[in-house]
């Protein structure tokens, strides 16, 4: 799709929205809602003495209230924002480690949006290497609602938030005791308990306590418990004369499975399916045979790889908020958070897939390492007498070179945000001004150790040994050690700290009751320093698998770098009638180099990433309809692309780096139609044209430089067209609600070369709520009803600049999670 077709699609979408608005408004059926969506108060990406509603806000914001959140019942933080236009979300990896790409910013994970809890960053850098912010946060019934800002002034009030901010807002205890308890079961052995209770405790203080506990085998069952753990939190709060104060303590101890790519194949009809012998909807390579492995390390010790840990996070978080009237109309707003987070992240990563016969042919040159051997053969580790059938084992005859990767990341972090506010009046005009200072300091250690293991291709794959046999078929030696093809193909030991200071100012200028102009300025400075230990290769002996083990060499490379930048935003909102308004905004944002840039690359020379973001929108809301249409433009400069391409022959990962800019034009639509009191339709859609500009890098082909130029190629993983429609009915005077969701994702690409296609797909879900009494509610959920095998990503280890899977009939990709069912009962008291 090029510019003209996209423009036609944009015009058609706008015309359709206007026609629907006219039709619905003309319908005199009784409305379901009592107030308009524009009356909702906004607390994210703004600061001021006065409250501000969506009607008065000059940027795009999506609000997900308590009821919608429960009906959607997201299984992860990433799933919670799939109803937000402009966001492409990918949660096929499980409850944590999701990906969000926003408004044409080509950054995975949470690298372009920040994750907030009660307005405070969950993590200063939400994309801290292998530690995304969603790994350190779990959604439960202590959260009341979600506000999502797309672009706007988020980069003025928060660090590392060029494309927006996602704010999970907790429940607050009221003047009377109240609470809830919710129990959920699922067809993947899910058992989950959520609770929350809030009550006054005397002296004006209020206490809120809550959390969750959950166990399940996972939607892709590894043969052992996949998800296990929970969290507890307690909040003390009090209203003061001229302010309020709150203390919040939360402890998380939870481990979740990390789902990775699986072997897929294009069949004769052109459809993509899992390879024979593998279940694409529910299968996973991880299994009991790869759950535990003692991996030999270069210093002679053993690394205990335990894949049942998955992503195991132990986090204690303490938060403090204080608002106070300083007198003479000045106000103080203080937010503080300290956390200690210990993360162990293990996974079985599928590095390379090929036929068993070609693997043996390639490795035949190593036959001399096994004296007396005349041929190579695969045998199962758990049954050495079982010979692997290279022609058709498991119906596919394929083998995988997997990376058993363990990463350890302890982090200690302190965040403080201080704001001084005052409203100035000049006649009938006002200026609501905020002066802010932000400080963040964190220390991170990083250790990684990985070995390659050969496995067959089936659900819960089994390790195989590559053995040498003599002329009589007897095993005389092995190139592998209990399936391990190479110990220590990855090794890292590093430590660093980051210190960030920022000063910002914002002004919300009320020119007239209908016209408001706001702007902001942020200066930020970051210092990163630390060390990374160098590597050497050692031969441990005893097996060819231990002949080239990476380990530390005792030589430390230190770094100490400082970066700074200033960003700004300017917006205006014209609310020309109580039901509708227009807004426009321009933002110059940035993302400074961070500790992740250096933690394993101490000699890196990063470029400052800068962005220009523009948006203009129309918002309309009455008792029959909410409708928001926003056109946006994003220009992103100096994006560095580095991916490690796994080479099975050398058992090494080779870095490839590219630098580029991107330009994206798009349109976002979202809203809800209320034709009658018993029927409504929620919808969101994104139409965009995301392109790389100036993306080029030099490749080494046959010992010669070759320039790769991917100018105007489509951004990886980002579709040009995506939409979600959720029709629902309210029956029995609102006691029963039934709704379905239909999601469509357009064609995407695995790599910047646009050589590997991720086909378009759709997925259907359903949910129901029945209020048996005012206190007791029952819920039913069905996800991916028709077992869609939509591919969310390819194999990053095949290269994301130019994938080595290009043209392959059999490849690695990660599809959606298969069909699942859940039921819940909730009691309020």
UniProtKB/TrEMBL annotation:
Q: Which domain of life is it from?
A: Bacteria
Q: Membrane topology per the record?
A: Multi-pass membrane protein
Q: List, alphabetically, the GO terms of the cellular component aspect.
A: cell outer membrane
What keywords would UniProt list here?
Cell outer membrane, Ion transport, Iron, Iron transport, Membrane, Signal, TonB box, Transmembrane, Transmembrane beta strand, Transport
Subcellular location, principal: membrane
- Family assignment? Belongs to the TonB-dependent receptor family.
Q: Which InterPro entries match?
A: Beta-barrel_TonB, Beta-barrel_TonB_sf, Plug_dom, Plug_dom_sf, TonB-dep_rcpt-like
Q: Could you state a single Gene Ontology molecular function term? A: siderophore uptake transmembrane transporter activity
Indicate where this protein resides in the cell. Cell outer membrane
Protein name per the record: Cyclic nucleotide-binding protein
